[in-house]
Amino acid sequence: MKKNADNKSILVVDDEENLRHMLHVMLQKQGYHVELAVEGAEALRMAAQKDYDFILCDIKMPVLDGVGFLKGANAAGIKSTVIMMSAYGTVDSAIECMKLGAYDYISKPFKSDEIGLVLRKAEERERLKAENKRLKEEINREFSFANIVSKNERMHEIFNLVQKVCDYKTTVLILGESGTGKELIARALHYNSRRKNATFVAINCAAIPENLLESELFGHMKGAFTDASSDKAGLFEQANGGTLFLDEIGEMPLALQVKLLRVLQDEEIRVVGGTVTKKIDVRVISATSKHLEQEIAAERFREDLYFRLNVFSLTLPPLRERQEDIPLLAAHFIEKYGRKMAKHVACYTPEALKLLMDYSWPGNVRELENCIERGLVLCEGEALDVECLPEKLRSMDGRGRGAGMAFDGFSIKRAEESLERALIRKALDETGGNRTHAARLLEISHRALLYKIKEYGME
């Protein structure tokens, strides 16, 4: 017997004895375990007592036909994938069967490779459904509060607030430095709410060019602009019924802020190039590392939009203010990446933990995670040791500063170079390696930053 079907079980339901025999022989050769029923009522009894992977069912049968079988299967909660067969298969009967939950139908007479193709397609669909279910369960576990690692009192206050607000459509503004876990909290808001089975869509407003951001958010009609070769649904439409997370909202252009405000007020969108509006049901969560009050004072952010977004706000503390979480987070990331890399690293050495605790973590939890992942790549023992940690941690002075920030010589030129190196490294850590944002923090041009990175061999 062939094993390509992994011995999946099939129930064949048909009143024609010759066809039942032919399908029995053919499907057994393809590796399926096959059982037979003469009509729909018998098939219902068998399917109620045993779970079949697939059911091949004729439409025209005495006693209980295929349509009656489908209705009975739905009422009994039978989950098998049903494929209909009929020599009298009209479009109407096929549509009725599909409406009742049949996966597909095939017309008699058929060849063995036709049945094989339909079954392979059905198997692939079931595989994808199972994988999708597994991923959803994994996501729900990952973003449940039990899996957000912290014993910090302020973080637990935030978890309590998230639980209180998650089921409401109230807009939430998440504040905090880069790398503090703002998107993780946004996902926790979604996956612990009634919307958890709908879509969570995230967009970084700073990562999309200004001229494309409106189209990304609201969609566009074919011909709306030069490159609009077809209609495209925007992220608001994709998130309909679910949640849209607008990261780095402080980077949104003023012209687009007006349109976002209108969407939040009216709960409807208009695609670029369109003339009609469309109602949407989207929960909006936004986040920023900027001080929006300062942006409002500088007339770079609309005050009315700020009040609309800031109905409920959460401010995440930086990692340097929750040092008690560093050992927990380090152990969590060691377990996470150890599993991914198939490495048996159980913990960290006391010396390594001291360096982790002494460092100021300007890039917050994201920087710590990257540090642990890099360390596990280099780790050859059963514990993460000092030599596995980045050089910037190993070269710190006693006050947790990088050695480059504590130049001991007298050369102004060398001191300037040392200070520039340290500031560039700090800015890159702060922005998660985003050179455009780092240049803005350093108040130099992007080109100047690239030149200095190359000059100092920091690529």
From TrEMBL:
Record keywords, A-Z: Activator, ATP-binding, DNA-binding, Nucleotide-binding, Phosphoprotein, Transcription, Transcription regulation
Domain named Sigma-54 factor interaction: residues: 148-377
Top-level taxon of the source organism: Bacteria
Entry annotated with the keyword NAD: no
One annotated GO molecular function: ATP binding
Domain Response regulatory: 9-123
Biological processes per GO annotation: phosphorelay signal transduction system; regulation of DNA-templated transcription
Modified residues (4-aspartylphosphate): D58
PANTHER family (UniProt xref): ALGINATE BIOSYNTHESIS TRANSCRIPTIONAL REGULATORY PROTEIN ALGB, TRANSCRIPTIONAL REGULATORY PROTEIN
Protein name, per record: Two component, sigma54 specific, transcriptional regulator, Fis family
Species: Geotalea uraniireducens (strain Rf4) (Geobacter uraniireducens)
Higher taxonomy: Bacteria, Pseudomonadati, Thermodesulfobacteriota, Desulfuromonadia, Geobacterales
